[in-house]
Recover the amino acids of this structure.
């Protein structure tokens, strides 16, 4: 079974094609084909990169066309040129989509119908950087591949097990009844990494207390007990929780009231400030990319140093909150772009928990570890760096749903 996966973001569209066989392997196989569109600040220009399992590569820039045309061009590389891996797009059996927000109604993977599309559209204002992009991807497949089955896998789904004490905000209950609650995000990644951690350690997932740290441009933590999410840092929207690349994370809600009253901020301006102009970018004035912030910090930039300090402080505080929910800790996992690639962040995060007996091996931490334990042999907590495989996790869910 050939499964095409679309993982849409506000500035990029990642795609890959898997050829699934039964039984499904636990470890993610290399996709037959991987394609990515990066949209530059000039929205009419796109950078397209493609690679295949056989080593073929393609890199080009397309200007002047719509995103729909650009995506259609990306799909054409599946069947044409050096990156050809199938004879016809009709060979694709199903398309799986990562959808960030599923609200209260969609907690499991579902086959996409007009009703599901309307629900995703209705939730766009709660995940403005992601749900619209997913919807565009769904419609692009409809235009390119017709009535092929499409499946939505929701980032909020894994957090459906949150206890009400963790999920419900202390607001008037009629607002809770209207659906304002903590949903949590990055669930596909958190679920995959918890399962993978148990496999790496050769232990039963049900027996482990795990904190997963998904640290990328967006950041969130999850407390996982008995294989279930019992607490997480993102909330009603992906804006809550940790300091992120350009998102503020949690701030005093009184700040919003102040900005509305004192400076007459519009909702659109608030959205731009909190989602696009805050976080590492807003504090450092350098970049939303932690690598650039670290480079500036190392050159003596004081605002970059402050951005680093706040990021680390809030990461440690978030881990502490998850620790309290779990009432102990067996495994700490780092994943996503920063979590997988920044030994300095892993070191800084772990230093705070030395009093618990958590120790990491500095040499292992700096050896670009992937899917290994970087804790010392005498550490009371195992510390893993895991390459998140969201696309593979989505493909697995698509397979299971179609088998049903």
């Amino acid at each position: 079974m050939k499964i095409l996966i679309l993982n849409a973001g506000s500035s990029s569209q990642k795609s890959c094609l898997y050829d699934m066989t039964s039984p499904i392997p636990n470890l993610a196989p290399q996709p037959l084909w991987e394609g990515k569109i990066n949209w530059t600040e000039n929205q009419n220009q796109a950078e397209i990169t493609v690679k295949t399992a056989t080593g073929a590569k393609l890199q080009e820039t397309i200007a002047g066309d719509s995103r729909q045309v650009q995506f259609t061009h990306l799909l054409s590389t599946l069947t044409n040129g050096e990156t050809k891996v199938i004879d016809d797009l009709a060979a694709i059996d199903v398309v799986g989509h990562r959808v960030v927000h599923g609200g209260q109604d969609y907690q499991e993977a579902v086959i996409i119908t007009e009703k599901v599309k309307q629900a995703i559209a209705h939730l766009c204002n709660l995940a403005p950087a992601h749900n619209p992009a997913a919807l565009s991807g769904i419609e692009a497949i409809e235009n390119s591949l017709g009535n092929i089955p499409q499946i939505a896998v929701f980032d909020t789904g894994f957090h459906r097990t949150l206890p009400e004490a963790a999920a419900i905000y202390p607001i008037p209950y009629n607002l809770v009844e209207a659906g304002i609650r903590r949903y949590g995000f990055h669930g596909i990644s958190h679920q995959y990494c918890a399962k993978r951690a148990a496999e790496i350690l050769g232990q039963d997932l049900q027996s482990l207390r795990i904190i997963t740290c998904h640290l990328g441009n967006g950041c969130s933590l999850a407390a996982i007990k008995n294989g279930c999410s019992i607490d997480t840092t993102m909330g009603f929207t992906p804006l809550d929780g940790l300091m992120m690349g350009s998102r503020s994370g949690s701030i005093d809600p009184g700040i919003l009231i102040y900005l509305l009253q004192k400076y007459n901020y519009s909702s659109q301006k608030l959205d731009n400030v909190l989602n696009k102009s805050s976080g590492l970018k807003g504090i450092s004035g350098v970049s939303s990319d932690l690598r650039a912030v670290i480079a500036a910090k190392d050159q003596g930039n004081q605002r970059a140093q402050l951005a680093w300090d706040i990021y680390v402080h809030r990461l440690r505080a978030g881990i502490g909150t998850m620790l309290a929910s779990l009432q102990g800790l067996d495994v700490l996992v780092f994943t996503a772009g920063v979590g997988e690639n920044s030994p300095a962040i892993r070191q800084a995060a772990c230093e705070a928990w030395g009093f618990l007996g958590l120790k990491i091996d500095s040499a292992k931490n700096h050896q670009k570890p992937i899917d290994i334990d970087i804790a010392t042999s005498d550490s009371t907590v195992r510390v893993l760096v895991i390459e998140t495989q969201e696309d593979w996790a989505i493909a697995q869910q698509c397979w299971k749903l179609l088998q049903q």
